[in-house]
């Protein structure tokens, strides 16, 4: 009998209470804007993604997984106790920066714990078989967060503590974390820099943020050498370039690694409308990347796949990308059509949807040749 896919969804209205305040750009004086501008990491992005999932009937077909706040023990699988205590302390004031550009408001420690705990809950569900796969639509995001400080809107590193949960509690030996957020997942890279049990693969806009992170020759050290895979792509890269990077590098290396769990750090800020980056992915690109990761998880680990929300800042478009990822995860029922791209025909016709581009091709070949020392690519 065909097995009906059981896909989990972690969402909690409390994620929307994470208050990033107004955009202070380093809090310089004199004030840098004529009028205050809302912080770009706004609650509306994740809220709209959830509402689109509702409107398109996607969340109805997902199993709700409750998020519980991550404990000190769970967070300290990566973070220092000093940092965890500092976040609590800041949250008892009117808020502040937990590190380098990762603001929280009063009580924000609880929301950040809930985001980490939400990704952990999704991992628990997938590792125990309660769900085949799961989408943790959490906030704040995690992949920039370092052991001892928040960074780039991220407070705790949700993907890292979830990977450790899979290893410590559920006995996973090898975890693959694939990070398609347009920025480099420096916090995740740092966590597993010398650790061969977690393969970290990041696709990102070349040298965008943080500066100096994510070059192709950053491959890990000691026992972890070769288990960090960086694929920096030039600005303008779109569906075709990402598809080439997935088929040329991501899929072959992931299969050789043969993970027990796949976690995707899913930032939808490589979209063609994102204000913080210059990539050109459309809904079809996000659908294709999701399908590839589902196929890899299907081949290697009975489909065990956890998608956790990272960035994505185009107010209209990024939520559509997230809803499309969720729809791809649950699959279409008969007569159901894919969520339409609000970019219309232009989404399929724009050059980046149909051409790789010479500079992207060269970047992919360069990364493949660096990685050829460790993997057959
Ligand atoms: Zn990002």
Ions and ligands: zinc ion
Strand order of the largest sheet: 2-1-6-12-11-8-9-10
The domain tally reads: 1
Second CATH tier, the architecture? 3-Layer(aba) Sandwich
- Look at the helices and sheets and give the structural class: alpha/beta
CATH topology: Arginase, Chain A
**Measured on Cα atoms, how large is the radius of gyration?**
19 Å
Number of helices: 12
Number of strands: 12
Largest sheet: 8 strands, parallel
CATH class equals: Alpha Beta
Structure in words:
The protein has 377 residues and is of the alpha/beta class. The radius of gyration is 19 Å and the shape is globular. The model has no long low-confidence stretch (mean pLDDT 95). The chain contains twelve helices and twelve strands. Helix 1 packs across helix 9 and helix 7 packs parallel to helix 12. The chain has a single domain, classed as Histone deacetylase domain (Arginase, Chain A, 3-Layer(aba) Sandwich), CATH 3.40.800.20. The structure holds zinc ion. The site of zinc ion has 7 residues, from loops.
List the helices and strands and how they pair.
Elements: E1 7-10, H1 43-55, E2 63-64, H2 72-75, H3 81-91, E3 95-97, E4 99-100, E5 103-105, H4 108-128, E6 133-136, E7 150-151, H5 158-168, E8 175-179, H6 186-191, E9 198-205, E10 228-233, H7 239-257, E11 261-266, H8 283-301, E12 305-309, H9 317-330, H10 346-349, H11 351-354, H12 358-371
Parallel strand pairs: 1-2, 1-6, 4-7, 6-12, 8-9, 8-11, 9-10, 11-12
Antiparallel strand pairs: 3-5
Bound molecules: zinc ion.
Zinc ion binds next to loops.
């Amino acid at each position: 009998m065909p097995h009906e896919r059981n896909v989990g969804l972690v969402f909690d209205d409390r994620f929307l209470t994470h208050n990033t305040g107004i955009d202070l750009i380093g809090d310089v004086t004199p004030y840098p804007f004529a009028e205050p501008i809302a912080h770009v990491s706004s609650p509306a992005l994740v809220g709209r993604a959830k509402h689109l999932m509702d409107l398109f009937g996607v969340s109805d077909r997902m199993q709700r997984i409750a998020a519980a706040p991550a404990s000190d023990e769970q967070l300290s699988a990566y973070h220092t106790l000093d940092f965890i205590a500092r976040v609590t302390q800041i949250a008892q004031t009117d808020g502040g920066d937990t590190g380098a550009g990762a603001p929280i408001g009063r009580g924000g420690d609880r929301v950040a714990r809930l985001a980490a705990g939400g990704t952990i809950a999704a991992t628990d569900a997938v590792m125990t078989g309660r769900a085949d796969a799961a989408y943790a639509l959490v906030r704040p995001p995690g992949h920039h967060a370092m052991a001892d400080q928040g960074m780039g809107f991220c407070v705790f590193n949700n993907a890292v503590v979830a990977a450790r949960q899979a290893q410590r509690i559920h006995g996973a030996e090898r975890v693959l974390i694939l990070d398609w957020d347009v920025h480099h997942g420096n916090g995740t890279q740092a966590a597993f820099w010398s650790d061969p049990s977690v393969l970290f693969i990041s696709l990102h806009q070349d040298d965008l943020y943080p500066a100096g992170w994510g070059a192709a020759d950053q491959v890990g050290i000691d026992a972890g050498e070769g288990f960090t895979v960086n694929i920096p792509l030039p600005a303008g890269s779109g569906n075709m370039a990402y598809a080439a990077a997935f088929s040329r590098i991501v899929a072959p290396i992931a299969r050789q690694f043969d993970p027990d769990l796949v976690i995707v750090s899913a930032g939808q800020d490589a979209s063609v409308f994102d204000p913080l980056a210059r990539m050109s992915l459309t809904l079809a690109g996000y659908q294709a990347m999701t399908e590839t990761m589902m196929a890899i998880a299907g081949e290697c680990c009975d489909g065990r796949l956890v998608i956790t929300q990272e960035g994505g800042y185009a107010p209209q478009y990024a939520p559509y990308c997230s809803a499309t990822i969720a729809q791809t995860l649950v699959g279409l029922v008969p007569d159901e059509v894919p969520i339409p791209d609000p970019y219309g025909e232009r989404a399929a016709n724009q050059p980046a949807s149909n051409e790789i581009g010479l500079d992207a091709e060269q970047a992919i070949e360069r990364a493949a040749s660096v990685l050829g020392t460790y993997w057959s690519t």
